[in-house]
Amino acid sequence: MALDHKDVPWTSGRSGNKGRAHTKGRPLDEQAWAEVRDLLGDRPRRRDLLIEHLHLLQDHFRHLSAPHLRALAEEMRLSMAEVWEVASFYAHFDLVKEGETPPPDLTIRVCDSLSCELAGSEALYEALESGMDPSKVRVLRAPCMGRCDTAPVVELGHRHIHQATPEKIDAVIAGGDFRPVMPEYEDLLSYRGRGGYDKLTELRESGNWEQVQDMLLEAGLRGLGGAGFPSGKKWGFVRSEEGPRYLAVNGDEGEPGTFKDRVHLEREPHIFLEGMLIAAWAVEADTCFIYMRDEYPAILKLLRKEIAALEEAGIAPAGYIDLRRGAGAYICGEESAMIESIEGKRGIPRLRPPYVAQVGIFDRPTLVHNVETLHWVAMICREGPEVMNATVHNERTGLRNYSVSGRVATPGVYLLPAGSTITDVIAAAGGMAEGHVFKAYQPGGPSSGLLPAHMDHVPLDFDTLQPHGTFIGSAAVVVLSDQDSARDAALNMLRFFESESCGQCTPCRVGCEKAVKLMQAETWDRELLTELCQVMTDASICGLGQAAPNPIKLVIQHFSEEV
């Protein structure tokens, strides 16, 4: 705990008769302290707001200096070590020690996810790195930005450039506008004009939460963030626990190839918001926390505006919806790591049990849903369970949003029957890109690995892919062609996991690093890699380390001629 400054000496632990005028460690800079106080203003100094306050400093000064972090620690009554370890955990914070040169004012982040790599992001990165003045512009590789449909993508400040080229980037730099480009979306007035929030009002006045829960189960709605747990059952688990209870929205869709949540929010954010408030009503949540990834600055801006509109309209009490901003950590897509981040800590997954439905935010029962799931909650409540369960295809019931990118003619998000095969998905995306022949596909993000083109008959849904050593996950479909290397694609995926491992457990932290080194060899040591995959799968704490070996295992199984 930080200590108050007082004009009394501190007793030396060794001599007992010597004193010093301040605590050990970095001294407090009075000017930095005044700047931090002015920036925070009357904002609460609660521990859980540490990351929000770090964002304030980063946005204002464009880096986090050691004196400012020391001042923030003093202001929040935290140790410098605690503030430093949180700030250094997240990729979007730039820490600068005394004597170090701060980064340039402008940073260009070049996405290096699989879809962007296929679209030429590595050549773009090299061109930018060699063509920019490093004293004025910093060029970084960055993980997926959720814009795989417009690859390759870069971010300049908070502005994204789609299908980026050096010429486009130069033009934006010359213009000097690095703010996010706001999408055209349905605002509160337009949404209410077509009956928006009428169902929420009806349920609040005379609704039965168990009937709504049964409706979700009848519709067949399952968690669409990747886990696939029946959504209605969660409500009963959380509601059965003593209050206070919370609701947490996982808006951190960081799985490379996934961008369906972004598309929903950029078009119709209030369908999601109504679904969230219905779920909060059902479990009698005291607060709704929305954890939104920092890679979506436009969505963060529009949500702030629309949440304020909800408060002004009396649909949500002031402060009831608490919007939290991520800081660049894929691991925070794991629900317990997200909760740690909401609490202002490093995003490190918790050991379970207990589960977050029992011990979640601030150790209270917490209902966790992702954005797309809550979108469907509102749709089902408004239109009935048949909006999902009336669709049957390949003996599978329901609908799924597939994020489709890679070697297809028209990448995008496609709403298709849940029993769709990769053939159906590619057809919806306009077929293969010109000059490309279908070779392989990633069915659900890098965690799902790669399947060969001849496995084009398997429905891309829950429970259908497990017999083939993979899963649907977030339905992030990346299509590869005869011009692509499955081996290189797997290496791209493992490099991502190596970079994004939280480092908590050795099997994941060291396993991803060793796997990348082994995969760079001219010929893979299959026996050693297989043994490493088994250890990672069996011993990793969370799904990142457990699923990271899938690209290796499936490439060895289906593309052995390449390794």
From TrEMBL:
Among InterPro entries, the record links this protein to: NADH-UbQ_OxRdtase_51kDa_CS, Nuo51_FMN-bd, Nuo51_FMN-bd_sf, NuoE_N, Nuop51_4Fe4S-bd, Nuop51_4Fe4S-bd_sf, Soluble_ligand-bd, Thioredoxin-like_sf
What cofactors does the UniProt entry give for this protein? FMN
Which keywords describe this protein according to UniProt?
Answer: 4Fe-4S, Iron, Iron-sulfur, Metal-binding
- Molecular function in Gene Ontology: 4 iron, 4 sulfur cluster binding; FMN binding; metal ion binding; NADH dehydrogenase (ubiquinone) activity
UniProt superkingdom: Bacteria
Domain NADH-ubiquinone oxidoreductase 51kDa subunit iron-sulphur binding stretches: 487-532
Pfam families, per database record: 2Fe-2S_thioredx, Complex1_51K, NADH_4Fe-4S, SLBB
Specify where the region named Disordered lies, as residue ranges.
1-27
Q: Which CDD domains match?
A: TRX_Fd_NuoE_W_FDH_beta
- Xref: PANTHER family: NADH-QUINONE OXIDOREDUCTASE SUBUNIT F
Family per UniProt?
Belongs to the complex I 51 kDa subunit family.
Q: What is this protein called?
A: NADH-quinone oxidoreductase subunit F
* Species this chain originates from: Donghicola mangrovi
